[in-house]
């Protein structure tokens, strides 16, 4: 493996045509406002895709301030990648390319105000967003998520509503609920696609299959 420094970040070439972000370039006195991780880097006339962020890459780096931008080339954010980056603020957007958010990846990033989780995420690790006390409002867990680790959102007391999908297993659903403040509302989303029963003969819809659902919209 080869290590590169582009003046902003240090990368390691860990696979063909791809690199991971290892850490900030060596300059401990600076403040990095609105840190932006690039989707590609070109080194010695070779272009590499940035596909992952190493564990502990920015651990406790309070010099990171403002809005963090993660490119739509990253597939994995490893454990504790941004742990304790309390200077980050605004909305964190996990891009649609990401499939895994590691354990404690954003724990104690208390300055974050909003969170959008990309539609390709399947795993949210334990304590991934624990202590992100600035997050507020409604959180949507995308439909591909099947695993939510214990205490993933512990201490996110300002998130009032969580919308999640039916493919989260019951055990992990319990873990999800245990990670929020008491009083958070959980809404499981189950969709029936248009024409799902087209040209199908339905002989029976069991009693109470749709119950207390006066607010369901129809089209």
Automatic annotation (TrEMBL):
SUPFAM superfamilies cross-referenced by the UniProt entry: L domain-like
- What Pfam family is a match, any one? LRR_5
Q: Which InterPro entries match?
A: LRR_5, LRR_dom_sf, Surface_bspA-like
PANTHER family associated with the record? IG-LIKE DOMAIN-CONTAINING PROTEIN, SURFACE ANTIGEN
- What is the name listed in the Swiss-Prot or TrEMBL entry for this protein? Uncharacterized protein
């Amino acid at each position: 493996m080869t290590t590169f420094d582009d003046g902003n970040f240090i990368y390691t070439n860990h696979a063909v045509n791809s690199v991971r972000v290892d850490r900030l370039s060596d300059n401990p006195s600076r403040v990095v406002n609105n840190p932006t991780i690039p989707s590609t880097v070109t080194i010695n006339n070779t272009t590499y895709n940035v596909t992952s962020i190493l564990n502990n890459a920015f651990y406790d780096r309070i010099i990171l301030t403002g809005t963090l931008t993660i490119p739509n080339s990253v597939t994995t954010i490893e454990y504790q990648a941004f742990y304790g980056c309390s200077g980050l603020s605004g909305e964190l957007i996990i891009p649609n390319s990401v499939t895994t958010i590691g354990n404690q990846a954003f724990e104690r990033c208390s300055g974050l105000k909003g969170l959008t989780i990309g539609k390709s995420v399947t795993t949210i690790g334990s304590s991934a967003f624990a202590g992100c006390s600035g997050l507020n409002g409604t959180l949507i867990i995308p439909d591909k998520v099947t695993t939510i680790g214990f205490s993933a959102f512990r201490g996110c007391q300002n998130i009032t509503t969580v919308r999640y999908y039916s493919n989260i297993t019951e055990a992990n659903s319990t873990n999800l609920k245990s990670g929020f403040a008491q009083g958070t509302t959980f809404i499981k989303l189950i969709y029936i696609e248009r024409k799902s029963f087209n040209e199908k003969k339905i002989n029976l819809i069991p009693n109470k299959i749709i119950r207390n659902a006066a607010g369901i919209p129809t089209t």
